[in-house]
Amino acid sequence: MKPQDRFVRYESGSERLSLEAARALPRSPVTAILDNIRSAHNVGSMFRTADGAGAGPLRLCGYTPTPPHRHLAKTALRAVEVVPWEHYATTREAILAARKRGEQLLAMEFTQSSQPLYEVELRFPVCLVMGNEVEGLSPELQALCNHCVHLPMIGLKSSLNVSVAFGVGLYEVLRRYSGESEAQRNRGEALK
User: Fold this and answer.
1) For the chain, which domains are there?
2) At what angle do helices 162-191 and 3-12 cross, to 10 degrees?
3) DSSP 8-state class, residue 127
4) Tens-digit pLDDT profile for the chain (192 aa)?
5) 105: which strand partners?
6) Number of Cα atoms under 13 Å in the Cβ half of residue 22
7) CA 66/CA 59 separation, integer angstroms
8) pTM over 0.70
9) What is the DSSP string of 43-94?
């Protein structure tokens, strides 16, 4: 299944999937590490977004709420039953494991040296590393990532809610993955 085929089906709104069918869908090569997220509602929202984007697994670190959790489940709307997830005692452990798997780690954190996400060259698989709602991602954890990226902000506020930033970042990475896949297919056709 081509990545864009998945979206065409859902855009039509005519098809409802069973849990088994949803679990069997292919996942994109985009994952996430959630560093000590305080709010179960934020985590539930990230599960729901990951399901909609076909991403996963989510690596829940430290005191990030994990399923089963009633507030998480309320926001996730059954996505916890579909999106793969793992728990790590520390975010450092999760980052080191992702590095071993060859994932490109993008720390989503606005800093003096961060780059806009739209300008960073991606190498799949990609892992978005999301920081705590109040403290963000520590400089030590940022240093373990391949890039520190941010979403450009032009208004009064300098940041978005972590679950909103995750959604924007995830769909931008997925958009670029779909485009890369199409370009790769076109190159393959041209070689025939």
Assistant:
1) 3-151+159-191 (3.40.1280.10)
2) 120
3) E
4) 445 455 444 444 545 777 777 776 778 899 999 999 999 999 999 999 999 889 989 999 999 988 887 777 777 677 777 889 999 999 999 999 999 999 999 999 999 999 999 999 999 999 999 999 999 999 999 999 999 999 988 887 777 899 999 999 999 999 999 876 555 545 445 544
5) 127
6) 21
7) 10
8) yes
9) HHHHHHHHHHHT---EEEETT---SS-HHHHHHHTTGGGTS-EEEES-HHHH
In this structure, the strands spanning 115-116 and 85-88 are: unpaired
Q: Which residues partner with 30 through β-bridges?
A: 126
Residue at token pair 């998945």: 6
Alpha helices in 107-161 (DSSP H): 139-143
Give CA–CA dist 101/83, Å, rounded.
19
Q: Give dist(CA 106, CA 144) in Å, integer.
A: 10
